[in-house]
What does this fold into?
Amino acid sequence: MIDKRIRNVLLIFIIPALVFYVVFWISPVLMSFYYGLTNWRGLGTYDFIGLTNYENLIKQGTLFASMGNTIKYTLFVVIWGNVQALALAMILNMKLRSRGIFRTVFYIPALFSTIVVAFLWSYVYAPHYGMISEIFELLGLSGAPNLLGDRSTSLFAAAFVETWKTSGTMTIIYLAGLQNISDEVIESAKIDGCTGWQAIRYVKIPMLSNTITVNVMLGLIGGFKSFDYIFALTSGGPGDSSSTLMYTIYKMAFVEMQYGKAEALAAMAFVFILVVSIAVLTIMKRKELEA
Amino acid sequence: MRKSTRNEILVTIGLTVFFLVFLSPIFIALFGSFRELDDTSNYLQLFHPLHLESYITAFERMNYFRSLGNSLTITITSVVVLLTCCSMAGYAIARLKGKLGSFFQIFFLAGMIVSAQMSIIPMYKVVNGLGIGNTIIAPICLYVTSALPFSIFLYTNFIKSGVPYSLEEAARIDGASIPFTFVKIVIPLTKPALVSLIITQGVPIWNDFFFGMLFLSSPTKKTLPLMMLNFIGDMENATQWNMLFAACFLSALPILIIYAFLQRYFVGGLTVGAVKG
It folds into this structure.
């Protein structure tokens, strides 16, 4: 049986990836479901305590607070990130001679490490000597906002930094999508009496639906995993006002040493992200077909 | 014609202003990094005499060449192992007939929604259980693993849409084995996908600090982003900012140089798999 021999060779080809994936990715996730049912604190023995961690996370409000922050962060990243990138891509897609230079420069933030980006923006946001404060001073205004120190703005200040860093990537992806739309389509839409805005709304955006799905999913995954900027810029604060799911899990495990509780939260986060990702992907795919 | 030229000039000016504002944190930090060490006057006054003291201090405190070497070793090893594993698995998944192929595709894809923070404690246990704690093998394994789901997905799709099966069949009739066909026919045809993976996965590995922060405690093994992490406490101190800015640029310098030379691969690499018809 030649086919069977081919199949066996192909299965051997999967083994290296499978070993990494099962040892370092799947088994830790499964183990975390188990630890979530214990009161393990890292040292010594631990007891099996059933769903107590889950109950506490819900009763103490930790689950919904961190989930709410993650949703707000993600919505900001997805909506603002895509609007900004799509608008820029459309402008850059005009036959400008300087397009290459703009595209090159605009991608630079995407090359920086998140920790470097966090340093740059903690200068921008710093009270007294930071960029925003100095601009206020320059204009003779008082009361420069302390965006990272205010409960109502710190989460969005961090989310804005994320869109700043990813804008180059998203714009380049949109630009490639726009370049796939042939000029003839736009020309014939104009001949049929489309105004510029109508051409964008009813021709370009539907034809970009595939690219929009890619960028929405990119934003969604980035938003759900938001950790780096919260860690380096706000430490979840002030209070818990910017604690996202991933940051809360990290803090519970490594700062408060509540391993069991952290893994219970991780398990709920896992289910939540799985359900939302599948739902959004299904909706986006259906929209794509309609378009 | 004349009207379109005027429009182009207006749009170009508008874009230039936008980009100057958008990227202003980078420009201000760049000018700040060349100031005297203790010069904390308003950063918006960009032009001061050039000084390199901030860079010298940052260079020494980061132990620059050692950290650069660590970053290079970890990134290059991770990317090589990643490409080997994901191309083999991606090829197999694309060519496996029946349900087996789609099972493995979904199985690996599911890993994309897992975030490293979710299972850090068990991950820690696995790493220490294997005896690779505080070695560079630990972050390398985790970089490879966390990049696998997306990489396999992209590679499988690239083969399905871009590599004609008839070529492989013809080779097989001529007596070529599967490993031979894979290396001689499939790999050369999938170069764009491999380049794309080097860039989309290599840059984040180079820039990451999370796995290093968890698994590398000895100072001699730290990478450039990890050395930046050491400076977090200095952010509170207004007099340290010139040095911090210099450290930011020193840490980004290698990748900026690579970008300057290989820019078209970056732009091309991002859009492989992201945009189809």
